[in-house]
Design a protein that fits this description.
This protein is of the alpha/beta class. It is 42% helix and 15% strand. The structure holds zinc ion (ZN).
Length: 284
């Protein structure tokens, strides 16, 4: 049995997710912000509020930051970086420089993709003082249909290799036959046992801004109540601009609600980095 299969079995067994924790067998709730607004004025105040809400309510969350947004709002990102340094509630990772697509049938060449990520990583190094090891995949509308996973085509395999070569150690769970909404995987079958896949789901552009399932609060509470007892990991994908500008949730009430209901329903909240650290301890 490969490690990936082991982790998958653990998930299907509705018990641990296989991140090597003896302390806890609880399912994980991972909250992230794809932090990509390039609206310098309208987004002001977001970082201050999210930091204060997370600390007040003890909510871990990860920030997958777009290189171009960091450049556009540099002083704000620098202040954020300063504020959160060393605080395990916060985890900063990458979301490409230009919101470039990976995993699409008609995506950009490997060379163009690599250059985009390299540019973003160097911005991260400058502003956050560290190189990201995680990437959340970007959704695009110009690259044709999504393939089924990194294992689907020669090009998509090369994309995973490219990310690994840049030092990326965690990216969305994107493998044919695996549920990217709930499963952690490793990429050993594609030659990268060092890489972890993390669940990604519940983009706020659909259920919050788009009100795709009616009232957002009612919807997410019912999802948590449904998945928690089944031991299924959950992921929430917020966007800084969607929450702050588009739906004007200036108290971040949805994040508070999710954290509270998740804990009541058996979830342990973690940053992506904490999940990766457990994954790595398990791998060695
Ligand atoms: Zn995005």
């Amino acid at each position: 049995m490969t490690r990936r299969q082991f982790m998958n079995t653990a998930v299907l067994g509705a018990a641990a997710i296989g991140l090597g924790s003896s302390r806890s067998e609880k399912p994980r709730m991972i909250i992230r912000f794809d932090t990509e607004s390039r609206q310098r004025e309208e987004i002001k105040g977001f970082f201050e509020k999210v930091v204060s809400v997370q600390r007040t309510h003890d909510i871990p969350a990860s920030f997958f930051c777009l290189g171009a947004a960091i450049v556009m709002r540099e002083s704000e990102f620098r202040a954020f970086s300063q504020e959160i340094r060393g605080d395990p509630l916060f985890d900063t990772q990458d979301h490409s420089y230009s919101h470039i697509g990976i995993g699409y049938s008609e995506g950009k060449s490997i060379e163009v993709l690599r250059a985009d990520y390299e540019e973003s990583f160097s911005v991260h190094e400058e502003v956050f003082g560290k190189r990201p090891i995680g990437v959340s995949l970007c959704g695009t509308s110009v690259d044709g249909p999504h393939v089924t996973g990194f294992d689907a085509t020669e090009k998509s395999r090369a994309e995973l290799d490219m990310l690994a070569g840049l030092g990326v150690r965690m990216v969305n769970t994107f493998l044919t036959g695996h549920n990217g909404a709930h499963e952690f995987v490793d990429y050993s079958d594609l030659g990268h046992p060092e890489m972890m896949g993390f669940p990604s789901a519940n983009s706020d552009n659909g259920w919050v801004r788009g009100r795709k399932f009616g009232d957002p609060a009612e919807h997410i509470v019912s999802e948590i109540k449904k998945n928690g007892p089944l031991g299924k990991n959950m992921a929430i994908m917020f966007h800084d601009d969607t929450e702050w500008i588009d739906v004007n949730d200036k108290e971040l009430d949805l994040m508070k609600l999710i954290a509270e209901v998740a804990r009541d329903n058996g979830y342990e909240l973690s940053t992506h980095l904490e999940c990766y650290e457990r994954f790595r301890r398990r791998m060695v």
